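Render this sequence as a predicted structure.
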Amino acid sequence: MSFFRVLFLVVLTLFVTACQSGKDEAESLSNEVHDSAKTMEEASMDSKAEILVPIWNGSETDNMIFEEYGTNPFVSTEDDTLSTFAMDVDTGSYSVMRNYIKRGSLPPDDAIRVEEFVNYFKSNMKAPTNDTFAVHVDGGKSPFGEGYHLLRIGIKGKEIEVEERKNANLIFVIDVSGSMNRENRLELVKKSLRVLVDELQPQDRVGIVVYGSRGRVVLNPTSIDEKDKILDAIEELQPEGSTNAEEGLTLGYELAREYFTEGAINRVILASDGVANVGETGHEEILEKIKDYAKKDITLSTFGFGMGNYNDVLMEQLANDGDGNYAYIDSFSEARRIFMEELTGTLQTIAKDAKIQVEFDPAKVDRYRLLGYENRDVRDEDFRNDSVDGGEVGAGHSVTALYEVKLRDDTTELGEVRVRFFNDETGEVEEINQAVSFEGDNLPEDLKFLAAVAEFAEILRGSYWARESSLESVLELAQDSAHAEEHYAFIELVKDAMALSRE
């Protein structure tokens, strides 16, 4: 069995139990807080058929692998006042959706992760001056849930100037197998990496490993002072053979270990469609190796390419285990955004194993529901268990969590939010906390837009909680609150989705 197929099986095993736990309770149509999981699932199935039916374009969407992580239910504060999850800055789900719609298809509901839609958009939150994170809390009446409020908890990481960024030792592990010739996707990889190389500093180094039927080192780590040599090596890459991802990753990690520099960014960057058909190994051994390297400060980021045979589950999980970030690159514009506009945050981590815990006051909050983060769930009792994996956050990155809450009265003092993480600079565990409160019922304009984005994701994934929503209402709210170029691009996607849903 191939490396990625075996790894895929283990990912399913790891997550299926957690996914099912999110379906244990649901709110009935009469607003009863608890309902059976079976009732919720049946209602969800019905609502999927009523809201949107995914449209497929034959060979363009074959062998696309996604995972169903469930949908968070409403939780009564009488039963559980704590909501705990790992921070997540990934954005792959949003660009996967965009690629589907631009090709004339609605994405399958399993491809949708609400938090990655919300976190795709730039935040105007202020960065901290001295601390690692600043916590921002606001909210107002929900535009999509009558009688509910929408609560935003935003975490903004400290910013680091380009000239102050750590030196980077980057090992590109590039899939050059025959599947990367499909849709000319290897050419997009090459263009993307050229953008990245052009943004690096003279003190940075780049090494290149490729894998087709076999893995091989194309370029030992080379200083950006010899940028032309690096770019020439990238330009000469051509599709070849089968897909031995196991050997490619192994060589990449070995090269990163050989050229490891204390105090620098030591990172393996995988560019692939996540599909493999050559190479066998024990899945537990590979997963442990990735985690072991991350503990030794050699991290892994994954960047996905391609439509038609793409493994979203594994690309995300590899980055999660490797303490890196995951993004899906569907266009040169997306490559420019990640590798040019957000390069420092993409490369330099400021916090590891970061977790968020919100404690709601049961005297003030009747029930709550976290939008997304289903596959980032952390047991409440593990919030301060520092051996439990959290999320990694880069310099200047922001993390936004949205809650729907049912208040008991007009109070705005709802509880407390805590953030716990390993400070990457000091290596020490830190914990910060802040009151959860907001004033007034009117949502800020940028939160109105994020509400539209979140509801769009909820509709696309056939969420039970979006059963009474419509794309028309999403479009109206997005148009009323949009103020940036990326917002208007989102509006066009909503319009396209509306047209596709009528076919």
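Summary. The mean pLDDT is 87. Residues 3-160+350-502 form a domain with the Immunoglobulin-like fold (CATH 2.60.40.1230).
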